[in-house]
Amino acid sequence: MTRLGRPSLPAWAALVASAIVAAGLVGTLAGTIQSWGFDFGGYWSAAHIPLAQGWAHLYDRQVQALAYRGLGLAKPGDSYVNFYIAPPPLVWLVLPLVRLPFHAAAITWSLLQLVAILAAWWLAAPAGRLRRAITLLALLGAFPVAYTLFWGQAAGFILLGLAGAYVLIKHGQPVAAGLALCVLVLKPQDMFLVPFVLLAAGYWRVFAAWLAGSAVLAAASVILVGTSGIGQLLQLQRGFIGSGYSEGPLLTVGGLPTAIAGAAVIAVAALAWAWHTRDLATAFWVGITGSLASTPYIHDVDLALVLAAGWIALREREAGWTPWLVAAMWVAAELFLVGYPVLAFVGILTWAAGTVMLGRSRRAAGPQPVRGSALAASSA
């Protein structure tokens, strides 16, 4: 096993900051416990629709509003409805919970997210007891992780899919890795670049397996909801994009033309650099951070996914600057709650720096082994 030495200053800083943030989260979440599972409520109410009226009505705006209010999820005197705008596979995962009372279902869902997040950490975090302890505390003290559990989002499953794909690639199982990435369909706007940068980096079997698995999920979704249902879904999504709610950093800073141009530049740069370096750590880094920087729709919980990029970078690189780079991305995720311009400035600059530095760095004594067995490098 590679000798890692003592943790650097950024690692200790993350440890202290995590403890402070975690303490603050306890009071914050305790004061708003009545709103627990708000986003999950949208999933849960949508999951009742196919059982009562059929899959064809899943994205009917009026039917969603009636279901949401009829299940008692709307606050008294509040006309707001948390519309469901995710693809059908997310509802499939929620269906087993519809027979439970809402609060029991929400807590169960949050516990499943927590298990998935901890499993992702166990798989992908760097070796060494102290480093793993520090990365675990940084995880538990991250606002996006806390809000994943609080709001009842699905970021935990996506994080586990990313970590699982990385480990499977390292174990020489590209097909299984590609199938693990099919979990990205739950929120396709979050990590849309990841499969393509892996393809550019030479992992074409991973891409092919992801494409085949995603095609099956897409076909099943279209068969269930129909083409009219897909049209209603796109209308709901367009209503959120450009509404000023949860817009991506580029869209917030410069409007639609700037967002399109910026996203194109980021995508081309990510693909080109992944092709140039043919490096797994660089591919995951540019895929994860590039997707978050260029997506048109982003939620605070989605920034939890940068943890996977950080874990992989720390595992694969021993350069002295790597912990600083990971710490900067952790800070960018925390500052998301301050405002999108801050995220855009810090996140995009850090993404650009990380892309170049990861691509140019060299391993001092080889990558660390993944947990579970000896290292088995995947060939393209």
Task: Describe this protein's structure.
The protein is mainly alpha-helical and 380 residues long. Helix content is 67%, strand content 0%. The chain has helices at 9-31, 38-53, 61-70, 88-94, 102-124, 129-140, 143-151, 155-170, 174-180, 194-200, 204-240, 249-277, 280-294, 306-316, 322-334, 340-360. The longest helix has 37 residues, at 204-240.
Describe the protein's topology.
Elements: H1 9-31, H2 38-53, H3 61-70, H4 88-94, H5 102-124, H6 129-140, H7 143-151, H8 155-170, H9 174-180, H10 194-200, H11 204-240, H12 249-277, H13 280-294, H14 306-316, H15 322-334, H16 340-360
Key attributes of the depicted protein:
380 residues, mainly alpha, globular, disordered C terminus
Task: Bin the helical content.
Answer: 55-70%
Structural class, by secondary structure, is mainly alpha
Give the percentage of residues in beta strands.
under 5%
Q: What form results from the Cα inertia axes?
A: globular
Short description, anyone?
The protein is mostly helical and 380 residues long. The chain has helices spanning 9-31, 38-53, 61-70, 88-94, 102-124, 129-140, 143-151, 155-170, 174-180, 194-200, 204-240, 249-277, 280-294, 306-316, 322-334, 340-360. Helix content is 67%, strand content 0%.
